[in-house]
Amino acid sequence: MAFRFVDRISTLEPGKRAVGHFEVPPDGPLVPFLTAEAVGQLAGWVAIAARDFTRRPVAAIAGRASFKRLAHAGSAVDLEVHVDSVDDSAVTYSGQASCQGETILSLERCLGPMMPIEEFEDPAECRATFARLCGEGERAGGLEGPVGIECSPLPPIKEKPRWRMALPGEARFLADHFPRKPVIPGTLFLEAQMGLAVRHAAEVLEKPLQDLRVMKVQDVKLRRFLDPGDVVELEIAVRSRDAESLAVRLTTVRDGTKISTANAEVVLRRRP
Amino acid sequence: MAYADPVAANEVAEVYPKVAAIIADSLGRDVEDLAPDKALIGDLGAESIDFLDIVYRLERAFHVKIPRGQIEAQARGGLSEAEFESQGVLTAAGVARLREFLSEVPASRFRDRMKLVDLPSLFTVETFCKIVARARRR
Fold first, then answer.
1. pLDDT over threshold 90, residue A242
2. Looking at residue B124, what DSSP letter applies?
């Protein structure tokens, strides 16, 4: 499995709620947006099953993602989602991820447009995978292979830093995302953007990079699919700041067309 | 025949500030950019994903349910599907009914043989106020 983040679904209230589990592979922690991916994939399973494997959601909108801490390598992550509504046009949900009872991430006011499933994957295989997840489960494995998003600085415009982001043309994770229509996962794209937001915060706040982290991201909107090999431009605009935090607006554009927007808050890490 | 479920001006006025703030926030615009007669697509640059976002935000803010496709169903009123549209194109009776239902939309924006998929291009900020006002009655 090259991009799967749910090992087992232990509780399912059809169309309403689910509890799932994921064991983080031993080769590194689960980065924030891949923890969000895990929650989103669980919500995706609820939505797909609710529409009897005819439609599937794609990531588009997150009202707020709050990040408490990383899930360590090898740790067990418990996932829970509550679906507000699901029909043939969209699924709306909230959810959280926790480790040993401690919430490490929460997602609020998420929305995914529902698309014809056969455009993305084999519905029969999807149904069989869901049955296994709801039974014994299977090792999902998380992200396989390098992400491969290359970022390089561009000249600022009106003092706003800009970056060129070159997305990989080939990557192992594209085998799962999706088998019939490979697209760059929005969560990987956002994770790369957050890395650049933290770098910018380090410059503005004059703090060491390792002392900063993204605490929350709001009003995420992914407007278009990102194809393998796409090149986009990211612009970072400062919305507010104080001595220990920086709020920024992240906007990406491809060939003059807006691809995504998000507001992020970067803060100083708390000392243990 | 007058549309059976009109929305009074005071109902629109009551919800307008909150609806405008939600639309502005969703589209990343200043609320001062908005006015009741602004078309979401033509004037404010909204796309299909924004419509889903705006409806979801309105549902949460006003504690109402706005089922997708409701506008088309409401606009059809007493007309059957065949009377309203044929193969995705509005009939003359369908366009007439739509003009009555979307009374806030300038008449010049309605065209003969309009496609059903182009319906959202008619929607203004006031259209969403009326959607919310109707949903609050239920």
1. yes
2. B
